[in-house]
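Suppose you are handed only these lines of text.
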Amino acid sequence: MTLDLSLSTKQSLDLSPTRTRTLEVVDKSNRLKSTSLGGKMVAEYWDNIFTAKERGKHVVWYNGTALNPIFQAAGLEWCHGEAFSARLAAMHLEGPAQQAGEEYGYIAELCSYARTHLGCAVMTQKGITEKQSGIVGMVDQDQLASKLPSPDFFVNAYAGCSTGQQWDAMTYRVFGKDFPIFNVSLPMIWGNKKDSGYLRGTEWEKTPLYVEEQLKKLIEFIEYQTKKPFDWDALSENMSYIKRASELRLEAMALCAAAPTPATYWDWVASIAPINFLPANQLLVDYFQAVKDEIQQRIVNNISAVQNERYRVYFDGIMNWNKLGFLTRKFAEFDVAVVAGRYTHDSFWQEPQLIDLDRPLLGMAQHYLICPINHGLKIMEELLLKRCDEYAIDGIAFHSTRTCRAMTNPQHILARTAERDRGIKSFSFEGDVADAAFYKDESLESGLVAMLESIDQQRAKV
Amino acid sequence: MHELESVAFSVLETVAADPVGYAVEWKRRTGRPVVGSFPMNFPSEIVHATGALPVIVQESRTPITEGRSLLPEFYCSYTRSVADQAAVGELDVFDAFVLADHCVQLLGAADVIRWAKPEKPMHFAQFISSMDDPWSGAQVRDKVASLRVEVEEIVGVTVTPEALRASIRAFNVNRHLLRRFYELRKTGRLRVSARQLQVLVKSSMVMEITEHTELLESILSGLELPSEPPDSLVRLHLSGHFCAPPRPELLDLIEECGVLVVNDDLYHGTRYISTDVPEDGDPFDALATWYLDRNVSAPCGTRVQRNVDWDSYLVDSLDDSGADGVITLMAKFCEPLMLYYPELRKVLDARDIPVLLIETEHEGLAAESIRTRVETFVERIRRQKLKVPTLA
Ligand code: SF4
Ligand code: SF4
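From them, the structure of the protein bound to iron/sulfur cluster can be written out as follows.
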């Protein structure tokens, strides 16, 4: 037998996946225009932070839940650790901070938010000791990662994920324990009692009261640090803006139950920073009003967020910040509208009716406890099915977020629940919050294609 | 060279190798319930006081099969093993589960058990992990009270203060005896391997405590002391490894490289036996005090406390044991340890104390590469010890 080596060159070898794709991929996504305003607001917010020390402001570094309305009322400038790591990753500028973290000894398997932010802390600390200046980043002036102002104190309030609390305990040590730290302990809503469920049961009624007491103590701590009485009226006012912004955001999200959807999960991702840590003011309300208006207008004009929407998908997992634009285009390329997600739809002031302006701390405590990683599995199952029903979801994309154990831990079981209770198909792909090295395009594409095929088969049977 | 070998020790060795087997046998023998708990801070005394058997669920040596599709692969080996044991039915002997720790990975494993065994009660009394806040004490007392209610309901027995006091005494006696072995090892009077000490501690997490104490007493009374360790061995401290014991083969391998392990801060070691529960006053409050004290006597990377540091505790402990260096054993993906390690290293480096980091996994042991690294490390310490100080 002879081996005809020339044969293979003559044959056309079709390695493309079952679904036809063109080499020049057309962008079939149609992002909202109004969210670009949020981008500007966020950029201005950070620019403002970088000059906080020059302006003689007190700076608090905090992690976890949205304590910013309290800081704002106290006249502080606030730096949110995850937000800064996410920003660096979204701008592809996380490298220097992660390298500084690595040199300090943080292993790549550690939460990449924590690793990036601890790297920033190392760089900031270096800035302080080398230059004795309040403004850091003299070493690497051009690198955003090194521009964080040093903290006057830390506050930690991490729900659901133990890593969050330990991360701040380490930041505190990186700074030589020189700055005070205040911990707000947020117990998990475990949900094992007979009466337990989302926003119900004795566990739910009791736990926020404990957190509310700690928030009062936090305010005493801040008063001590700033040597100024706390402005309770300002807090209520801030919460009134948050409440209104949140209502508008939810109304706008509800409009996306329409098919085809006028906006996608990626638009809500772009709106996380505003609702999560920007100052509470009329601008914030205006932002969400603009988002809602645009969505309404799209419905009137029958404009879809994804050309030729054929599949409606739910996104479970924390955001892969390095890949926001890329993933937006990628899913749209397959006619997939990613309509909703755990990260966007079950977090960030998602129950505005809980905010009581006469007793703002209780509503805040309640929100901090309903962070989507702070529930036991039963409640997470309840929420997932609710969202799938609300948005007529066909499939679920699970972002297996390599270094975020909190978001990934229930995913295998959630996938089984969705299939068992609603017949909803899913797939899982690898990536990370702020470390591009963990993203695997093949894992996304092969999983997505397989899921879409099984949805097609399911539809064909009906 | 090791002086523990005895009938009593081989009983403990069997229990340590097959904790579930022991629990099954105990249940058959007594007809009483078995309650599983999880590392690293659950007060077993409260279960013991009901007459049930408290067992700290251990990592199983069996390969992970079903568990693979229930927890992500980047969870620590302990939690993946627990999920696997739940899925394949290895945890069926347990009548209920209780936990007090909040490590995100542990909670993930607990959720898998809840999902795989919905009929088994699983109570979580989340002990506050911020140890020095003004409300920490009251919060822990509250949680101990809720544990009491849950445990009473599970077992159907009221925990009286008297019964709890008796259990506290029993556990204190046991810890005291275990510490005695540690002290003898540190002084060099007892030649005992790290593997053997692990057997002693691990079996105490599983066995009925008075039964365990009797066996410890029998071993201690049979010891022939003193003996002196050879001078040529490098003295090391083993640090790290939370929740699950490092593989015995790894401990053997380290000692085969000319090392004498003189102390540790492993959970299956000093950390577990570091702290007694106060015997006076209200016994329920005493359990709360024990929890808070524990982080002072052996600071843990999973807790936060401003006035206590694992790194300085480690340095003090090295001064005490005369160890020449530290091997940090890190279970792959254990975030608390990954987060704390740079602080440990920073302090050790500043004092010129050699440190070697070894990552461990559920699936096997890269024996030869670890051996080479340990040998090089030991050699470095030897050279450092021989270095004659030069005149500045
Ligand atoms: S592991 Fe996830 S939830 Fe936890 S601190 Fe990191 S990003 Fe946050
Ligand atoms: S502390 Fe470490 S070993 Fe223990 S469950 Fe958490 S990650 Fe696993």
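What can we learn from it? Confidence is low (pLDDT under 50) at residues 1-20, 131-142 of chain A. Strands of chain A lie at 59-64, 77-80, 153-157, 181-183, 311-316, 336-341, 395-401, 425-431.
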